[in-house]
C-alpha cells in the first residue's frame, strides 16, 4: 500500500525530473561529434553493466521462460527505438524543442490504453487531452510546416515517434508486474543493447575521436538518466505510487527546456512556451478521473 508522499518524496521526484530532463542536453552534446548509433549502444552498454552488477550483487539471475517476450518488447520499444530516434533527431533538433515534443508521451500512453487494454474504458478526458496536445503541436510547428517532408520536419516527427514508442512500452511493461525490478531492468537493458548492434554495425564508425566533454556527456547518459534514473523511478513507486510518479511528466520537459537555454544557449522555439503549456494542459486533462495509469519503469529520454 502506498503512503502519503512526504517532502523527501517530492524532492526525489524533483531530482528525477532534473535527471531525465538533462538527457536531452547531454544527448545533443554527444551526437554533434559521435555517430548517433554509437551513442545509443554505448549508453545502453554502460547502463546494462551497472544494472546487471546490481542484480548479481542481490543474488539474482536473469529471468527464464516466456517472460522474455514482454522483456524483448520493453527493451525494443522502451529503449532501443526511442533512444535511436532521439539521437538521430537531435543531430538537427534543439534539445529544448525535443523536450517539448516529448511532453506528449503520456498522452500516447493513455490513448493506447484506451484502445488496446480492457482496464480502461473509452474516456473523454483522455481523447480530449490528446486533441488539446495536438493543438500544441500545431502551435509549435505552424500549420504550414506540419505537412513538410524537409529534413528538419522529419527529425521532429522522429521525436514524436520516440514518444509513441514510450507509450507502447508502458502498455507492454504491464505484463512485467511482480517481477523483481533488478531482474527486469537488467534484462531489457541487455536486450536493448543487443538489438542496437545491427544498426550500430550499419553506421559509419570511421571516426570516434571526440573531445573529453563529449565523452563525458555520453558516459553521463548511460550512468545517470538510464541507470540511476531507472533506480530512482522504482524507489519512488515503491515508496509512494505510480500515480505520484506520473507527475514527472510535467517536470521533465520543463527541466529539458531550462537546461537547453541555460547550458547550450539555445533560444526558446517560436511559440515554444505557449505550445508547452498547451501540451501540458492536455496531459492534465487526460489524467482526470483515470482509474489506472500506466507508467514505464524506463523513462530515460
Plain-language structure description:
The protein has about 300 residues and is mainly α. The chain has one domain (about 5-285). The chain is about 70% helix and about 0% strand. It has helices spanning about 5-30, 35-55, 70-90, 95-100, 105-115, 125-140, 145, 150-170, 180-200, 210-240, 240-245, 250-265, 270-285. Helix 1 packs antiparallel against helix 10 and helix 2 packs antiparallel against helix 3 (about 70-90). The two termini are about 30 Å apart. Mean pLDDT is about 90; it is low at about 290-300.
Count of helix runs: 13
Q: Sketch the major β-sheet.
A: none
Helix content: over 70%
Average predicted confidence as pLDDT: 88
Estimate nothing, just give the exact number of structural domains: 1
Class from secondary-structure proportions: mainly alpha
First CA to last CA: what distance?
29 Å
Give start-end ranges of low-pLDDT stretches.
290-301
Shape: globular
How much β-strand is present in the residues? under 5%
Oligomer: single chain
Order of helices and strands: HHHHHHHHHHHHH
Count of individual beta strands: 0
- The Cα radius of gyration reads 18 Å
Provide a concise account of the structure shown.
It contains 13 helices and no strands. It is mostly helical and 301 residues long.
Task: Please supply descriptive tags for the structure shown above.
72% helix
Amino acid at each position: 500500500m502506498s503512503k502519503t508522499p512526504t517532502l523527501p518524496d517530492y524532492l526525489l521526484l524533483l531530482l528525477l525530473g532534473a535527471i531525465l530532463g538533462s538527457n536531452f542536453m547531454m544527448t545533443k552534446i554527444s551526437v554533434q561529434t559521435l555517430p548517433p548509433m554509437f551513442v545509443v549502444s554505448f549508453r545502453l552498454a554502460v547502463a546494462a553493466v551497472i544494472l546487471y552488477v546490481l542484480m548479481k550483487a542481490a543474488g539474482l539471475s536473469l529471468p527464464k521462460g516466456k517472460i522474455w517476450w514482454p522483456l524483448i518488447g520493453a527493451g525494443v520499444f522502451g529503449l532501443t527505438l526511442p533512444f535511436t530516434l532521439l539521437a538521430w533527431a537531435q543531430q538537427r533538433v534543439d534539445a529544448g524543442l525535443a523536450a517539448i515534443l516529448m511532453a506528449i508521451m503520456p498522452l500516447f500512453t493513455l490513448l493506447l490504453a484506451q484502445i488496446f487494454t480492457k482496464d480502461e474504458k473509452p474516456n473523454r478526458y483522455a481523447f480530449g487531452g490528446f486533441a488539446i496536445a495536438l493543438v500544441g503541436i500545431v502551435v509549435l510547428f505552424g500549420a504550414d510546416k506540419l505537412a513538410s517532408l524537409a529534413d528538419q520536419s522529419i527529425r521532429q516527427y522522429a521525436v514524436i515517434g520516440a514518444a509513441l514508442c514510450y507509450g507502447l512500452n508502458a502498455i507492454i511493461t504491464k505484463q512485467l508486474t511482480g517481477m523483481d525490478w533488478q531482474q527486469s531492468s537488467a534484462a531489457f537493458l541487455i536486450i536493448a543493447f543487443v538489438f542496437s548492434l545491427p544498426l550500430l554495425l550499419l553506421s559509419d564508425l570511421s571516426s570516434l575521436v571526440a573531445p573529453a566533454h563529449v565523452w563525458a556527456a555520453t558516459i553521463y547518459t548511460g550512468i545517470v538518466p538510464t541507470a540511476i534514473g531507472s533506480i530512482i523511478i522504482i524507489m519512488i513507486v515503491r515508496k509512494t505510487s505510480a500515480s505520484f510518479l506520473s507527475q514527472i511528466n510535467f517536470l521533465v520537459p520543463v527541466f529539458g527546456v531550462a537546461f537547453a537555454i541555460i547550458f547550450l544557449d539555445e533560444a526558446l522555439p517560436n511559440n515554444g512556451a505557449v505550445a508547452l503549456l498547451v501540451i501540458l494542459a492536455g496531459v492534465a486533462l487526460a489524467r482526470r478521473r483515470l482509474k489506472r495509469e500506466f507508467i514505464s519503469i524506463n523513462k530515460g529520454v
